[in-house]
Structures are given as structure tokens and as C-alpha cells.
Amino acid sequence: MAGNSIGQVFRVTTFGESHGLALGCIVDGCPPGLEISEADLQVDLDRRRPGTSKYTTQRREPDEVKFLSGVFEGKTTGTSIGLVIENTDQRSKDYSKIADRFRPGHADYTYHQKYGHRDYRGGGRSSARETAMRVAAGAIAKKYLKQEFGIEVRCYLSQMGDVTIDKVDWDQVEQNPFFCPDESKLEALDELIRALKKEGDSIGAKLTVVANNVPVGLGEPVFDRLDADIAYALMGINAVKGVEVGDGFDVINQRGSEHRDELTPEGFKSNHAGGILGGISSGQDIVAHLALKPTSSITVPGETINVDGETVDVITKGRHDPCVGIRAVPIAEAMVAIVLMDHLLRHRAQNAGVHTTTPKI
Amino acid sequence: MAGNSIGQVFRVTTFGESHGLALGCIVDGCPPGLEISEADLQVDLDRRRPGTSKYTTQRREPDEVKFLSGVFEGKTTGTSIGLVIENTDQRSKDYSKIADRFRPGHADYTYHQKYGHRDYRGGGRSSARETAMRVAAGAIAKKYLKQEFGIEVRCYLSQMGDVTIDKVDWDQVEQNPFFCPDESKLEALDELIRALKKEGDSIGAKLTVVANNVPVGLGEPVFDRLDADIAYALMGINAVKGVEVGDGFDVINQRGSEHRDELTPEGFKSNHAGGILGGISSGQDIVAHLALKPTSSITVPGETINVDGETVDVITKGRHDPCVGIRAVPIAEAMVAIVLMDHLLRHRAQNAGVHTTTPKI
Amino acid sequence: MAGNSIGQVFRVTTFGESHGLALGCIVDGCPPGLEISEADLQVDLDRRRPGTSKYTTQRREPDEVKFLSGVFEGKTTGTSIGLVIENTDQRSKDYSKIADRFRPGHADYTYHQKYGHRDYRGGGRSSARETAMRVAAGAIAKKYLKQEFGIEVRCYLSQMGDVTIDKVDWDQVEQNPFFCPDESKLEALDELIRALKKEGDSIGAKLTVVANNVPVGLGEPVFDRLDADIAYALMGINAVKGVEVGDGFDVINQRGSEHRDELTPEGFKSNHAGGILGGISSGQDIVAHLALKPTSSITVPGETINVDGETVDVITKGRHDPCVGIRAVPIAEAMVAIVLMDHLLRHRAQNAGVHTTTPKI
Amino acid sequence: MAGNSIGQVFRVTTFGESHGLALGCIVDGCPPGLEISEADLQVDLDRRRPGTSKYTTQRREPDEVKFLSGVFEGKTTGTSIGLVIENTDQRSKDYSKIADRFRPGHADYTYHQKYGHRDYRGGGRSSARETAMRVAAGAIAKKYLKQEFGIEVRCYLSQMGDVTIDKVDWDQVEQNPFFCPDESKLEALDELIRALKKEGDSIGAKLTVVANNVPVGLGEPVFDRLDADIAYALMGINAVKGVEVGDGFDVINQRGSEHRDELTPEGFKSNHAGGILGGISSGQDIVAHLALKPTSSITVPGETINVDGETVDVITKGRHDPCVGIRAVPIAEAMVAIVLMDHLLRHRAQNAGVHTTTPKI
């Protein structure tokens, strides 16, 4: 059934396959009067775009986004915004050899079983290319959040393979193709990627998303909790296998007296909670981590079956990233921005104008 | 805005505060003709119920669930099922001392800021007591999944503090109050809990949920993915700070050639993916892990502020679990069962009767 | 699938059958801080309640509503509000004779075909008794609309059989058991009802709902239009077969030059549109009409089939209204109030704080 | 907030303004394996298209629809279907004179008040041109309904001004530009339209939609009733002011003994109910009527105000239909088809495979 939408008040619905005519999405529920241009979206699309550095795939996808509706004289009208990116560099030939077999670690098998009839070109709908539209939609959310509330949603690479990154210098993040916040780790990352390319293999990664200036009070108490919606949004990114809020899995071995963030008149003393208590934002930085698996698009031969159930070999030729985690940085930002946007508008629906003791959003 | 529902085709909406008159929920979308009785639900409610062992809180909540509608002559009618549990052992006096102050690590502060007006008795809506209704609703889903598809959703304690549990003997799980699948770890767990009680402190935990016999094909490809919905459902449980599917955070340091699950005519060779590929179930066991924080309801004094912003001390008296993770076992099962139920019905909506090459659900 | 909810931001979900233990509903999304008591709801419940005059059924249903959650110290908390009404005067014996046959004009046949297994006692879920919960939920919406925006939603009987009512004196409406706004028609209505009782037959009715002080700007432009949502809400009331907004079916023979409501600096010159243009409220009174069929619960014998497909006679004994339209007055008000409440909160979500040229809600 | 979608399991979301770059929509939830081509959609688009006869506007809009995704090798894949129609004949000059004033009877005023910032070119989002995408999406639903269930959804003109049409000859409907099922009324309709053109005025219309072969059991019992969803869908069409199911407003003066449709072993004896009982399809023809107002796009001068609140005159130049009701025929069919499609898939979700006494869908 329908399953290509995220958000309730601010809702993004996407369409498009890797090698179809175009990708597109509808952004529904954006407030009117927001100044926005295609260039605002292009910045993040370019950050996600492959072919921009030697560390990512050399496919060239210009990813030029176009507004088809919802923006008039440079401002949103409040009606639904239609966006498209035409697919130009499709080269479906590269994929023809795997049309009849299921690449292990990919969605080929599950799509085939679910739908019977699938677009096998480049992964079709399961291709990471679909995330371009999430980034485009997220850029609209990011602009609104920044302009109206001063909220910034940013992401960085916090680990790749065994290269852990602990020092966070935000100024560094956009200075290198790894979105790495620690300059001293760039060489290790470079070496790791070069070794993987030689081997034809790939590696996983961990990303950290931080949203600051988020007002207190976002999130519903039981089911549409802010942490649950962030987990949903991040786990929904291709290749993600784990999501943490705040201290995440470290809490297993923490004591209550250590984990709880004490309050003082000046604010919280710590942020083990990652900015969310009882599913509701606390006014602290929202901090989330995500783990991305190593892509299965590798040249190391693997065993699989074809549509007739026979054993066959598979090698994914073509141009692929050794670490898809890198390019997920703008996607993770976009997803968290979409969730925050939705919750901000939701919060405003319920609370504005009713009680006066709470700071208004 | 509305935020107390989970599911789209099979939808559960809950209400009720810890110390109000009653908890309740509406289960909407259950197929007609399912044989069900209150006793079917009581089994899981009793597994969640506090006061059943010396390791959990000594509050006694009989948690007797009652069908108010939707079941006629022992079978579901297909219309909405109303459920209630009356609150009997309320003792609101215990909580009166913390009405004006925000317990660190609890949702007191965020509720106060969000709503202005909050029910402070026992955490009100943020109390884990609310999860009783999730367990009740989940029991209906579990019965349907088991009966119609042979699906079982089970959960066990996989870590508490530094006590890790690797051996999984399902027969053990229900034999001890920890839901621990390894008999050899029971003594260590017992010691840990006793030490914490003495200290008045608490500890985190890790749980593992496994669903077997899940048909291939459940989950939508982009946003309503099965993994994303499981992440949403589990992160929405009180105290959860992290969720993993399959290998989870271990993927960060895996190679693609190692992570991908190869296929043979007999099936997959491994299950690093945790039974989900591209957001869609693969027919393997669904495996998910969750991390639960140590409860902040401890007697170790902490620093906080009151509603006037002044520094005050806080000690949570009352009867609390040193490890809330234990009682989350049936809750985690219920949440995953609700998600699977919703996706099974969704899948049936879209796919039945159209293409014939795919195994029908 | 799930289908017992109305509204998106302010959402009402109901449960309960005519002769089950209780009726209930969850009102989710109500802003916090609204002063509300059970007595506020009882007023409308009593207006809907049967047995209050000789013109309606003599069944006695005290319909005492109880808050189970969501209200604390006399004010809404912002969390989900649980409501129940226990069924006391059930007398299921009255209905036992029709358990195996399908009353013509009732939902017996369609429920049986849809669900296979149905609660036949008093119509089960299809009973008009279910609307008590809509009235209770609507009363919460009405109180909020009145208090925060001065909006009033009122309804009157505008026709019964061939007795048309053109004069609208709002002060009269609550003075007589017909909700008739024209005192001079009371005698004709009384005669009609008495004649029907003698014949054991029933009659249809037309109601008119008016909402005033509705701010301009409510409603979404394409699908969640205010007029479409009102049509949905009113057509969803038992027995309703037609809905009009503004001039309704009269527009078929109107000219454009006659229908369009011209604007002057003082406001609109007329209100043919019924307060809605392009799906969005214009700031004028919202005016809608609805047509209710004559109930099929009559003593005039009718022909039908039983569950085995054999021809049988049916007479609906029991205590029934000759004109169910009368009691639908508070239901129609409730439904329109729920729709307006939802749209007010929705509007606030999208628009508040963004553009400054538009009057704020 | 988000408000450009219809349907839950089969969901259509549209975007696009009258004079923007393109119109588009996403059809989400269509089952896989349905053979479909752009030509299948074009048939209905051409029926809706202006400029095809002398009775409708002479604007020429080729309305060529293009699949951007979701269809592969001539069959739906089960993923979201992206559709666009580029706007070619825009002529925004025609509308420039009315940019600063509110055309009476149009949505100019309400859009301005709601959004502050509106696309005034040709009505922007409120233009009937938006309905092209509903027709395109509806054509997909129609094809599926026809192919899988033999369901046909058809519509005809049942009244225009004072020309009533009682004889229904389905073979006639597509033979004349009025979609009139009675050949003997063509001359009267021709005269009426010619008179209106001379006067520069417009007229309302009544349409009747009939769906046959609809299985019994579609529709949810309380809120997502089939009749309520049809009312929502039809009232949501531009210019519609009234909707009836079955006998509609005639029920006001019917007796219960006359209205109820008696059952015999061979089926129902009559169809006053219009194929829906208790919100659920009865297996009879679904019959609904809708009333469309006369368009306000006329050359008869009218009084209005401009954005500064000053009195001004307004004349709608340009190329407009004297009776917009005519072109709404394929739109009404599309909307009912979308509703039926959604309910068929919903019904399948809940009911398949559970109880065996009910005919399966």
C-alpha cells in the first residue's frame, strides 16, 4: 500500500527509480511566504552528489532540481511543492547482466518476492539515488528551521571501519570530502579508502547528527515521540542498521545516578539523553548516531541465486562508493530536518494561544 | 496534535495516566473471526506486571484487562476493540513531594514545558504504566500472527550492565524473572540487582527481539520500511536509547564481502541483515536489539530545579525497578508484533490477487 | 482496516456496540489548559438522548459520560482524553428475533457480508447509539471553539416530511423537542409524528447546521477542503443520504451572475456559497444542510431474507423514533465542530508566524 | 498543513498550478503487475480537456500525460507512480488584470487571506486545471477496477439549468459533448448554452455517477464509510455544492415503509439506498448525484474589492465554459474510482483469509 511518504503536517512523498525518466517529490504543508530558490536546494544536492571527489563513485549526475509548483515570485505559496530531477547519465547497460540474479546484500530478492515485477535497472526504487529527493525536500525544511527558529541540523562522519573520530571541529566538516570533523584523521581515512578500492571491497561507517537551537516541547508523549520519529527517519535511509539517541547503546552499562542529566537554574549539567526526555525535546542539542553497513556493490565475487533459483556468481561492476556512509551525511541531515519541521508545525497546531506559562514556539 | 496511535491498517490508540481512573486503548482494524479472550491478553500483561518477583518493583497492579467492545461470542467482529484496565493501587501520596520539581532523567521538565499543565502523579502519561495497553494490544496481534501465519515474536535479555549473555536457550527465557536465555548468568544478574538495591541505584539493559516465520515481502520500499517501523516502535518504548537491526552498530567495521548474506538454493547462508533487505522482510528471522537506559527513579539524591527555577534536591522514593529493561521484554515483543501485523495486512491490501509469481501471504 | 477515527490533528476514535458493556472514545490532540468537565459534555448528550420527550423513543439511556484520562484538576492536559459511557438499559431480548434475518434498510446485511461474524444485538456497531460518543467528543470541540474563537456551531430542523420550515428564530430551537426554529410549525410536526406512530411508520428530515464567527482561511485547497470534510462528516452520520453547502442543489438552476457573492468593503453582499470558497472558509457563516432518511425500524411488516437466504417477514418491535432526524441535531453540530476544530489547529500549524499580511488565527 | 492527498491505501497526491511549469501527481499504493500505458490515461484526459467542442472553453491544452516512474515494461511495479503534464498554452497575460482584485465566487479572496502570498495566474492552485491530475490518477484506478473486478464507474449529465434529464441511455452518453444520456434533450441543452454565451453568463448542473459490479462489503462502519468517502471526494471537486447518495434529499418526504429496500432471495427489490447501507456497499449499483454551481468566470460585470479593500469592478475575460458541470463528468468518475480502489484494497487488507462464510474480494 501507499508507503512513499514521511511526515504528517509537513509531508514529503517521493517517486522515481534510478534509471527512469526522472526522480521527483511533493513537499506538502510548507508554510507560505518562505523565500526559496532552486539554488538553496542545490547546495545540499551537490554535497550528496556522486562524482565530486575521488573517494566516491565516478558516475556523474548533475542532479539539477527544478520547482514545478508551489513557489511563486521566489516564495512558497503554501500549496504543494512539486520537485523533479531528470535522470541524464543512466547507462543501463552496466546493470543488464544482473537483471536475472539477486545481488546479495541488496534489495533485489525482496523486491522480486514482494512485487513479482521489478525495475532491475540500477536497483530501481531501492537505489540510493532516490535519496536525492529526500535531500531536496530536507533543504526546504532546513531553510525554514534556520530562518524562523535559528535551528541548524548538521552531520559528520564519526567513524569509518576502525578509524574512530572523537574530536569535533565543525569548521573542518565541509573542508574535506569525508565530512570528517577531525583533520588529523584525514590521512587514515584516505588510506582506508584506497586500500578498499584496491581490494574491490567496501566498509561501514558511523555518522552523528546534531540539531541545535531546537525549542523545548517538540514530540508527542506516547507514539509520535521525537526520538521514535528520528529513529524511523534515520533507519529508513538505505544501508542504515542502527540508530542511537544520546548515549545510545552505552546506557546498557551506565548507572541511573550517572546517566540522568541534572538540572540547574542555568540549564542541564550534561546531555546523556541526547536532547530528548520522554519523547519530547528538552531544549538541549538533539544528538543522534547512525550505523551504515558496507555496500554490497563490490567487485569481490559472491554467491547467489538467479530468478530460477539456480546458484550463480555475482560481481557488481560499475562505479560504486567504497563507503556509502560518506554520502549519507546530507541525507541524515535532511531526514532529521524533515522530522523537526513536522514536529514544529505539529506543536504549533496544538499549543499556540492556549496556555501562557510555556514559552511559545 | 494527535500522537497516541501506532499503525495504519492495524491501528492502536492508547489513553491513560499512571494514577488516573483507568488505562485503555482502541485496537482498530483487527480482522473479524479471530478467537480471543481476555485470558489471551492476561498472559503477557502478567509478564509485564510489576510485583511478580523480588527483582522488580513491589507495587501490586493486578492489571486486569476487560474487553468493552469488538469481541462477540468469543470472536473479534472486525470493528474497533475497546480495552480498559482500571487503576486500583494508586497511592498518589507517594508522589506528592515531587509535584513541583522536575526529576532529572524523567519527562517532568519536558511535559511541563510542552503542556504547561501536567498530571504529575506518578509520571502521568509518561509513566511506563501506559505500556500495559501496548502489551494488551500486542497480545491480540501476537495471537493473529501465530494462528494465521505461524509467526512468533519473542524477546530476551541479552545484557544487563556488564553481564553479557551470548548463549540463547529459548526454553530458559520464561523460567527466570530476568527473561535471561542463559541459565549460567542468573547468579551474576541476581548479584547485580542486589547490589543496586543496596546502593539505591539502577542499571541499563539490552534486549533482543526475534520474529520467526515472517513471510518475505513485508515492508514498503522507501518510507514505511519494515526496519524503520521497527526502529520507530522500539525507540518509542520508555527508556530506549538505541535500536539495531541485524548486526547493528557492528557493521561500522565490517567489509561488504563479509556483511552481505549470500544466497543459495537452500536459502541465505547467514543473517547479518537481521531479516530485512531494502526495508522489506527477506523471509529470514527478523532480529532487532534495543538499549534501555537505567531508570532515574533512584534513591541516590540528585540536583534539579523546581517549577520556579530554583535549585532543589530530588530523591525518588516509592517502589521502583533497579533495571526497567527486564519488564520491557513483553513490551518489545508487543511493539514488534503490532508492526508486523500492520505490515501483513498492508501487504495483503496491495498484492493479493494481482501477480501470480510471488508467494501469497 | 482501521476506520473508526475522524480528524488528523484533532482526532476522535470511537468504539462500542449498542448492547456491549460500554461505548467509548479517545479524543487525541486537544490543546492543554482547556477547562472542561463531564457536565459540559452532558448537556449535548442529554439533547441527543432518547426518552426525553414523547416524540422520540422511550428507551431510557442515562448516557452518563466519564473522563478516564487527559483531564487533570479540571483542565485538559494535552494528552489523549479517554471517555466512556456504560450501557445500562440493554434489553437484548427485544432484538433476539431478528438475529438471523436482515432488516431491510439496516446495515445487517452489509455487516454480515463484510465481517461474517457480527454483533446483531440492536444493530451492534451500526446502531445510532454509537453517535453518543461523537456528541461527547464534539462537545469538547464546541467548548474550545467557543472559548478561544467565539465560534458557535448550531443546528435546527428545517424540514420533516412535507412540513417545511423557513423562518429561523434561534431562540425557539431549544424550546421544543423538535429543535424547530419556527413556533408556528410545532403543531404540524406534532400531528405528523402522531400520525406516524399510529401507522407504525417513519419519516425523513432535513437539518441545517450553521457555524458563525469562523475565521477566514480554514481548509486546504485541493483534498482536505473544508466543504469536503464537512460533507464527509455529515454523510457519515447514520441515515444521512444528502449534504449541501450553501445553496446546495439549488445551484443547478442558478446563473453565475446570480450565484456569485459580490464583495464590498463592508463584506460579502450575500452568502450563496455557504461560507466556503475554493474549499476555504470565507469568514461568513458556514451553512450546511443534510437529509436523513426515514428509519427502517418500523412496525409495518416488510419482506427480507434470513442468513440462509430464505424469504422471511420482519417487523421491528422495540422502542424507536418515528423521525430519527430530530435526534441528529446535536450529532450534526458535533461533527461540524470536530471538523472545524481539526481545521483550526491545522491552519495554525502551517500559517502562524510566517506571513504578516493575513489575519492570524 | 499537508492537504493535497486522497486515499489511505491507494493514495493520490497532486501538485501544480494553472500557469506553472507543470501539473503532476504521485499515485502511491497501486498493486504491481497492472498493464497500463499513457494512452489508457489519455482517454479520460481528453474527455475532460477543454477546447474539444464548441460548448466548452476554446483554450487548447493538449494535456499529454507522462509516466516518470512506477511503470516498467508496460506494467506497474508496485512502487509510487509519478505523473506529469506540462503546461503549454499558458497565456498569463489574460489574467494580469485581476491580479490585485478578488473575483467574486472564486477562491481568490480565501487564498489571499489564508496564505498571504498567492499565485494569481488563472486561479493558481484553485484552478479546475488541477483536476486533470485527478482524472489521470482515476484512470489508473478505473483500469484496475475494471480488469480485476469488472467494476465500471460512469457518469452522465442529469440536469443543466431547468433542463432535466430522466431517460438514461448509456450508449448516448459518449455520443454528445454534454455527456447527456437522453438524445431528445440535446437540442434544449444546445439552446441553453448558446443563450448563455450571448449573455456572457453561466449555469449550474447536476451529474449522476453510477458504479456497477461493486462487491458487497466495501466501507468501514463508522468513520471511513463508503458513502462519507464518496461525499468527501465529490464535494472536493471544484464548484460542487451538494452530494446525494441514492434518493438523496428526496428521503426527507419518504416513509420508512417506502424507502427501505426489501430483500428477496434474488436480491434487493429496489435501490433507494444507492447501493450503500450502514456505510458499506450492498452489492447493488452505487448511485450518487452532485450539484455544480455556475462558474463565476463570466463577462457580466460584478462588484468586488481589491487587495487594498477598495471597491472595483471585475469582468472575467478569457475563454471559459458557460457550464463547468459538463467537463466534471470524467472528474466525478475519477474521484469515485479512487475511493472504490482505496476501499477495495482496504477491505482486502482486513478480511482476506480469515473467515470463510463471506464472499471474498
What does this structure look like?
The structure is a homotetramer of 361-residue chains. By secondary structure, chain A is α+β, with helices and mostly antiparallel strands. Chain A has one domain: Chorismate synthase AroC (Chorismate synthase, AroC fold), CATH 3.60.150.10. In chain A, 28% of the residues lie in helices and 21% in strands. Chain A is built from 9 helices and 18 strands. Chain A has helices at 38-48, 93-96, 108-115, 131-149, 170-173, 186-199, 226-235, 256-259, 324-351; strands at 5-6, 11-15, 22-28, 65-67, 71-72, 75-76, 81-86, 152-160, 163-164, 205-212, 240-245, 263-264, 267-268, 276-277, 280-281, 286-292, 302-305, 311-314. In chain A, the strands form 6 sheets. In chain A, strands 1-2-3-7-4 form a 5-stranded antiparallel β-sheet, covered by helices on one side. A 5-stranded antiparallel β-sheet of chain A has the order 9-8-10-16-11. In chain A, helix 1 (38-48) packs across helix 4 (131-149), helix 4 (131-149) crosses helix 9 and helix 7 packs antiparallel against helix 9 (324-351). The A-C interface holds A 8-9, 29-34, 78-80, 148, 221-222, 345-346, 348-355 and C 8-9, 29-34, 78-80, 148, 221-222, 345-346, 348-355. Strand 11 (240-245) of chain C pairs antiparallel with strand 11 (240-245) of chain D.
